Amino acid sequence: MVHRQNDYRLDVRDAMRGGSGSVKIEHLWEKELNSPTRMFSRITLEPGCSIGFHRHENEEEIFYIISGQALANDNGKEVTLYPGDTILTGNGDGHAIANAGNTPLEMLAVIIRFAQ
After folding, report:
1. Are 31 and 97 in contact (CB under 8 A)?
2. How confident is the model over 16-54, as pLDDT tens digits?
């Protein structure tokens, strides 16, 4: 199965999880997945935009930084992320992420549910 660039469902969320500005989410794969994957998306944060702190219960989320610079709250610890970096949050831990640069922050987000 192939999805072309213009086939993705686009979501724009304002103040996502209490963050600033708008978050653009391109849902790369959704209901087609036969795995416990809840999200497989490309997320874009313009300068000054963020996703607020939130926890992941019974699932884990991975961010892969494609371009830009991020400031992440990794369960209470601040860390700067650059292209090629990844961050994993799950098992009750929480995170937040903000665009820390002057160009768009683009990242791949994958959320996988734990087996019930």
Report:
1. no
2. 999 999 999 999 998 888 889 999 999 999 999 999 999
CA 45 to chain centre: 10
Comparing CA positions, the residue from 114, 113, 116 lying closest to residue 39 is 113
CA angle 42, 43, 49 (to 5 degrees): 170
The tokens for 103 are: 């160009």
Would you state the structure tokens that stand for residue 98, as one six-digit string?
């903000």
Is residue 106 helix, strand or coil? strand
Distance CA 26, CA 77 (A): 28
Looking at residue 104, the DSSP 8-state letter turns out to be -
In the chain, where the domains are located:
5-113
pLDDT for the residue numbered 103: 98
Tokens 């610890």 belong to 77
The CATH superfamily label for domain 5-113 reads Jelly Rolls (2.60.120.10)
